[in-house]
Automatic annotation (TrEMBL):
This is Formate/nitrite transporter family protein. Belongs to the FNT transporter (TC 1.A.16) family. Keywords: Membrane, Transmembrane, Transmembrane helix. It is a multi-pass membrane protein. It is found in: Membrane. InterPro entries: Aquaporin-like, For/NO2_transpt. The chain crosses the membrane at residues 12-41, 47-68, 80-105, 142-162, 174-196, 216-235. Pfam families: Form_Nir_trans (PF01226). Its main location: membrane.
Length: 256
């Protein structure tokens, strides 16, 4: 796609997912039930996917497959360009919603943050400084959570491609997204909303803390998870299917 189209689609994806994250945190605070919040959070993924918008986690998995499968015009430089543009667009969309929600949670920065705003600030502290204080174990946990996040998210993206109906696509996406959110896995684009918003709302951590102790390791983990557990696996067993062990018996020749 053109630079313009890639940026617009990724901007809108980041914004919609950020709204879904704000929606889920609000539900969790108002009901005290994180399971309900997790059950409803996938609405954001469904909306952005059905509208044809692009998330970094999805293109981490899908774009390299075009090169590996030797599709015409697909190159690694093109993949890197796509990843860079989608990152910028996602971040811009998420940051826009982070600012809008911070305005709402503080009455235009004239009052202290409401309960939802306070919760978002604490989430940012725990998932940056909390990992850093745990040292290597904390950073390893962050990385594994990011790997498993995009294992689930990309499973939803690929699953949606297997259906031709809107309802089927929604069901395929809803299940793995619910799993990732409820288990507290790390999603780079969700975090593009949570942490900048947390800083605006008075969270006791810095932009450097956010990037060093969350966003950068999360992006790397999302890339590894999507490429290995979804992209590579699907390519290995669907695009490069091995001969069946009982192929001879299926045509009337006894298997050895």
């Amino acid at each position: 796609m053109s630079t313009k189209d890639t940026l617009i689609r990724s901007y809108m994806a980041g914004a919609i997912l950020a709204l879904a994250a704000a929606f889920a945190v609000t539900i969790a605070v108002n009901t005290g039930n994180f399971l309900v919040a997790s059950l409803l959070f996938p609405v954001g993924f469904c909306m952005l996917y059905l509208l044809g918008f692009d998330l970094l986690t999805g293109v981490f998995t899908l774009a390299p497959l075009a090169v590996i499968a030797k599709r015409p015009g697909a190159t690694w430089s093109g993949v890197l360009r796509n990843w860079g543009l989608v990152f910028v667009g996602n971040f811009g969309g998420a940051l826009t919603v982070a600012f809008f929600m911070a305005v709402i949670f503080t009455m235009g920065f004239t009052t202290e943050p409401n309960d939802v705003g306070v919760r978002i600030g604490h989430i940012g502290e725990g998932r940056t400084l909390g990992y850093a204080e745990a040292g290597f174990g904390g950073m390893l946990t962050l990385f594994i959570r990011a790997v498993m996040c995009n294992w689930m998210v990309s499973t939803g993206v690929v699953g949606a491609m297997m259906s031709t109906s809107v309802s089927g696509k929604i069901m395929a996406m809803w299940m793995p997204i619910l799993v990732f959110f409820y288990l507290g896995f790390e999603h780079s684009i969700v975090n593009m909303f949570l942490f900048p918003s947390g800083i605006m709302l008075g969270g006791q951590f810095t932009w450097a803390d956010y990037f060093l102790y969350n966003e950068i390791p999360t992006v790397i983990g999302n890339l590894v998870g999507g490429l290995t557990f979804v992209g590579a696996m699907i390519y290995s067993t669907h695009y490069k299917t091995s001969p069946k062990r009982n192929a001879r018996s299926s045509v009337g020749v006894p298997a050895e």
